[in-house]
Amino acid sequence: xxxxxxxxxxxxxxxxxxxxxxxxxxxxxxxxxxxxxxxxxxxxxxxxxxxxxxxxxxxxxxxxxxxxxxxxxxxxxxxxxxxxxxxxxxxxxxxxxxxxxxxxxxxxxxxxxxxxxxxxxxxxxxxxxxxxxxxxxxxxxxxxxxxxxxxxxxxxxxxxxxxxxxxxxxxxxxxxxxxxxxxxxxxxxxxxxxxxxxxxxxxxxxxxxxxxxxxxxxxxxxxxxxxxxxxxxxxxxxxxxxxxxxxxxxxxxxxxxxxxxxxxxxxxxxxxxxxxxxxxxxxxxxxxxxxxxxxxxxxxxxxxxxxxxxxxxxxxxxxxxxxxxxxxxxxxxxxxxxxxxxxxxxxxxxxxxxxxxxxxxxxxxxxxxxxxxxxxxxxxxxxxxxxxxxxxxxxxxxxxxxxxxxxx
DNA sequence: AATCCACAGGAAGATTAGGATA
DNA sequence: TATCCTAATCTTCCTGTGGATT
Length: 408
What we know:
Layout: H1 2-11, H2 15-19, H3 43-53, E1 65-69, H4 75-93, E2 97-103, H5 110-122, H6 134-145, E3 151-157, H7 159-165, H8 169-176, E4 185-192, H9 203-209, E5 212-216, H10 221-235, H11 245-255, H12 260-276, H13 284-304, H14 308-323, E6 328-329, H15 330-343, H16 351-363, E7 367-373, E8 379-385, H17 390-403
Parallel strand pairs: 1-4, 1-5, 2-3, 3-4
Antiparallel strand pairs: 6-8, 7-8
Helix pairs in contact: 3-4, 5-6, 10-11, 11-12, 12-13, 13-17, 14-15, 14-16, 14-17
The structure holds a DNA duplex.
């Protein structure tokens, strides 16, 4: 230890960092994936879910369940928690209950769902990523499932994704599978962010899937405060948080549909900023900068994943805004856009389409586009940028020149 | 009051990409 | 593997319109 200390003193780089008390004790406790042993303000939902699934332990088939709630309301956490408890208890009392968790953002096709189910039950890669006919995969899953008497609880997280991306056919098959199974029983838990996603569902699937429904309401500000306090005790060294920090994080997150993830992110990023700046306490100012940073990162990410035509439209708007002779309107943007795509060269879209792209950028919150009338001089959209441009401009120049170098 | 700009934004058809199906 | 389907993207053509100007 002494030699290490000497080395550091010699280099001097880490000196100041080591002198201050570290802010984090255990950063893991702030991650989304961290499962605390106690879930504040979700007792009611936990109990409902456990009560329904308890049927599995009595050897009956639990009702299928649909769980609704916006992002960061604890749906996934509660479900995973209950699922784990169910397996644990099942093992203890000798009633086999298997739970399979699946995130439909990743596992998003009919084939992949069945392959994942089969492979989890076999405990190894029996079904390859691709290649088999879908009904053969279904048969493989069916066979392994029915080998022994057991209840299989399949959890579809973000179930709305799979319905939108492919179809509800898998769900239909799974809801009917119990009539053919001799030993095993399958029940389904669907988790959805989208409250209206049942509109897209086949009514036959819906009636079977929605036997029970559990709603997770957004957290109130003081509930968020409790959650943050619970995590903060684990995550931080005592006394590094100003007392205004947690209430402020909670208030910001409550304003955005009571998202606990957002609240935790704010707290974590604020503390990281404090650490980076060499501060020994996290203050209100850090929370405010954290809010800005998170927002910027979000925008950067959105811009990065934009289709290239939209990027070019956005770049045109930025150039015009910088030039700064008054309000930017659709016609100007289109002329600039056409000039740029001609030079690129890229396909040139019609003004009608570009107008829609501008509206989409508006929806994403990157720009503000308001329809105004300039009287004799027509009706148009007046466009202003909704976010600071420097980082976006750099990003766009990098990405657009990657595909061609004639633009700049 | 009438005109008319510069688009907005709806409808419908064409084109295209990627997944489903045989 | 080929081709069939579907949903998303894009075009063409269109009607509608707030208000400064005449």
